[in-house]
Amino acid sequence: MCGITGYIGEQNAADILVDGLKRLEYRGYDSCGIAVVDSKNALYLRRVSGRVAALETLVAKGPPKGGRTGVGHTRWATHGAPSEDNAHPHTDCSEQVVVVHNGIIENYLALKEKLLAQGHKFKSETDTEVIAHLIEEKLKHLHVQEKAVRSDMLEPVFFEAFRHAVGELKGSFALAVVWARCPGMIMAARMYSPLVIGLGKGEHFIASDVSAFLKHTKRVIFVNDGEMAAVRKDSMDFYTFQGKKTSHEPVTIQWDSTMAEKGGYRHFMLKEIHEQAEAVENTLRGRLLPLDGEVLGRELLMPVEFMRAVETVQFIACGTAYHAGMVGRGLFEHFGINAEADFASEFTDRAKLLDKNTLVVAISQSGETADTIFAVREARAGGAKVLAITNTVGSTLTREADYVLHTHCGPEIGVASTKAFLGQLAAIYLVAGHFAAAKGLLDKTDARAYAEELLRIPRHIEEILAREAEIEKIAAAFASSEHFLFISRRLNFPIALEGALKIKEISYVHAEGYAAGEMKHGPIAIIYKGMPLLAVAPSSSSLDLMAGNVEEAKARGADVVAIVDEDSKKTVKASRYIVLPRTGELFSPLLTVIPLQLFAYYVALAKKCDIDKPRNLAKSVTVR
Ligand code: M6R
Predict the structure, then answer these.
(1) pLDDT by residue (tens digit) across 26-38?
(2) pLDDT(328) > 70
(3) Are residues 175 and 317 in the same domain?
(4) I need a surface site. Which of 39, 249, 594, 600 has the fewest CB within 10 A?
């Protein structure tokens, strides 16, 4: 969580850093700051408690126009409350060493104690500040506190001080550090937190995520775990923490910078909801036909014999991605393949029960979710192969997995995940279909029908989006409700959970998703007269049961909005309906979630909530 930026070149660093922070604000937004150094070694530090917009106003008042080197940060608090003092960048006692950090320094208390004993004075409650003092201490050991260091020795001295300090850190970090005496070089390092360097002409960019600098360059280098970089305006070198040189080939990113802008929509979330037909198309493109295991196997470099040998599929993920995994479990089970889905954060003992015939499918939009990455490590240690489904090229997850399937949804900026979920679902349907076909569980005709139905989904999504105004009206009717229930059955039960999660995270109201059949075992007691209940009830083999559960809720006073198709509408009696195009029972989760996303969006809009940056949250959760 937290976003870091860095710039070294010929342009005004402050403007570039602030602009980059705006694009990274989805990663955390409780405080932020920048520090720039000019050619005369003067350091300008600007920090605010609050959003990047406030920092921008402060920076506009001047004066750091001369600075061509600098670092920036937008924070999601872990150690120390959101405040100006705790905002990054952090400095050492001499205010010469400037650090921005994403991650958690696990041994910061031990380091802090030692540094305090050495006379260092701390100004914040953060774990990060120890890094600045540690580098200062290393510089002292290299005898550079006096001004007399030869100018050609400044870079090697900074490099060594940084390297030794990094060697003492435990935990996760992406770091960018400037030493005011040496403005020609930024030092950066990565351990378990994302770090990418953008290559310009006579300038370089550092960031947690490419979207920070995409408008300047698409040529990037992803720094590896255990690697550090010495970044100058016209060169850069990479090393291990032990000081051994490493090398990299730049990669060209396909996303363009406008993809990370709102494009006329009021919020990123709404824009991303509207990009879902395209997200599904992009995820499926060129991978679906023929549905026989071979096409997918070739892309993933996964032998079809392995697909045949897989006995259990284990999904691990968090939040919305976990709901995609739950749909995946139902889908694989439908084909007769054993499947499980677990929260990555709860996936501990089960990892010991895996074997080489288990395929672990780790799902993550960002590819940086710490819980998911740690679970993947446990799974691999347990002997399982891991398939990563992610939207983020070059992310940590892609390096940890045996096989990688990118969802190609484009950048998702809104903290509430929408199009990434659709991409994840499409990828899961793709994988399930290929596995079932490879295992002989889908014959050629059924495989063809399955693929064709999937290919129709984007058009159906567009039909639903065309009815946005109706959904907005229904949402407006419930805008002042403080409690919401979402119920469904089987493959749509995870969609009920997802509907409730969307409302919770962007409207801050209480919402619960329940398996419809479970209601009578306890939760039905909470229903009161007028309580909104969203029943996800498309045509299915369990429709009669679902209709019965809706009746039970109505009898206790629930005000029911039913998500139906023209056929199921005849069976489910509700006070309001959202009618979807009819699709096969197996495919309905790809459609039923869309009205729930729009419903959550419009409830939050009516409540005037900060939809793209909900309180207490961050887009990328890189702590456990
Ligand atoms: O990047 P990931 O897909 O791994 O993120 C997992 C969850 O943190 C994420 O889906 C979260 O639940 C979203 N804010 C939900 O909208």
Answers:
(1) 887 889 999 999 8
(2) yes
(3) no
(4) 249
159, 93: one domain? yes
Give the pLDDT confidence score for residue 349 in this predicted structure: 82
CA 318 to ligand 1 centroid distance, Å: 6
Q: Please name the residue ranges forming H helices in 108-188.
A: 108-117, 129-141, 154-167
Does 440 share its domain with 492? no
| For range 318-341, the mean pLDDT | 98
Q: Find, among 384, 391, 388, 426, the residue nearest to 404 by Cα.
A: 388
Taken in order 386, 389, 393, 396, the sign of the CA dihedral is negative
Which residue pairs from 353-356 have beta carbons closer than 8 angstroms and sit at least 24 positions apart in sequence?
353/382, 354/312, 354/314, 354/379, 354/382, 354/383, 354/384, 355/382, 355/383, 355/384, 356/383, 356/384, 356/385
The tally of domains found in the chain comes to: 3
Instruction: Using the predicted structure, report yes or no on whether residue 241 has a pLDDT greater than 60.
Output: yes
Cα–Cα separations (whole angstroms), residue 602 to 128, 169, 481, 500, 576: 39, 45, 13, 14, 16
Last residue of a domain, one of 419, 443, 465: 465
Q: How far is the CA of 265 from the centre of ligand 1 (A)?
A: 22
Active site members: 2, 619
Please choose from 208, 320, 346, 623 the residue to mutate so as to test ligand 1's pocket, defined by most ligand atoms within 8 A of CB.
Answer: 320
Residue from 76, 208, 417 to probe ligand 1 pocket by mutation (most atoms less than 8 Å from CB): 417
CATH of the domain at 622: 3.40.50.10490
C-alpha span between 89 and 124 (Å, rounded): 11
- Residue 615 tokens read as 């309180």
* Overall pTM surpassing 0.70 (yes/no): yes
Atom of ligand 1 nearest to the CA of 390: 3
Contacts of 64 (CB under 8 A, 6+ apart): 13, 14, 36, 38, 44, 46, 70
In a shared domain, residues 254 and 292: no
Q: What is the mean pLDDT of residues 450-467?
A: 96
Q: Provide the CA 1 distance to its chain's centre, in angstroms.
A: 9
Q: In this structure, are 235 and 305 located in the same domain? A: no
Residues having CB within 6 Å of any atom of ligand 1: 318-321, 364-366, 369, 372, 415-417, 501, 505, 620-621
Average pLDDT over residues 552-572: 97
CATH value at residue 174: 3.60.20.10
Q: Domain check: are 294 and 155 in the same one?
A: no
Domain that holds residue 308: 261-465
127 C-alpha to center of ligand 1: Å? 25
Residue nearest to atom 7 of ligand 1 (CA): 319
Closest atom of ligand 1 relative to the 418 alpha carbon? 16
Distance CA 468, CA 357 (A): 45
- Pocket test of ligand 1: the residue of 315, 327, 342, 365 to mutate, having most ligand atoms within 8 Å of its CB, is 365
Q: What integer pLDDT is reported at residue 144 of this predicted model?
A: 65
CA nearest ligand 1 atom 8, residue: 319
Q: Are 393 and 473 part of one and the same domain? A: no
pLDDT tens digits, 352-386? 888 889 999 999 999 999 999 999 999 999 899 99
CA-nearest of 130, 174, 178, 175 to 158 is: 178
On whether both 153 and 241 belong to a single domain, the answer is: yes
- Residue 281, sorted as left (phi over 0), alpha (psi -120 to 50) or beta, turns out to be alpha
What pLDDT shows up at residue 63?
Answer: 62
